[in-house]
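Reopening this ticket.

The earlier resolution said the output was attached, but the attachment link was broken on my side. Pasting everything inline this time so it's all in one place.
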Amino acid sequence: MIPLHDDQPSATQPLVTVGIIVACAVVFLWQLTGGEEVFYSYGLIPAVLFGEATLPPDLAVIAPWMTIFTSMFMHGGFMHIAGNMLYLWIFGNNVEDAMGHTRFLVFYVL
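Inline output:
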């Protein structure tokens, strides 16, 4: 069963939800054109994050702790992003409506 919509109307425009969906789509298109270097440079690699391994200098473009946030917008394939964005679109607007725009953005990032 794949949900296509919910029956809970939102009182406000889901600005943050739409912004996150757009950001994820743009990052996904960038991933498709950037090759596997993008995954190594901006994806979360636990061994690198905890200092047990290092990336080659040409791949270490950001600090390892920043990959916690950059990896939130990356996806492993079309079905991965399609499923995530579908559920974000269906349920994110209601959560954003209940929490407010700023609190929802902080909630998403945390």
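Reporter confirms the inline version is readable. Helices lie at 15-34, 36-42, 46-49, 67-70, 78-99, 101-109. The chain has a mean pLDDT of 93.
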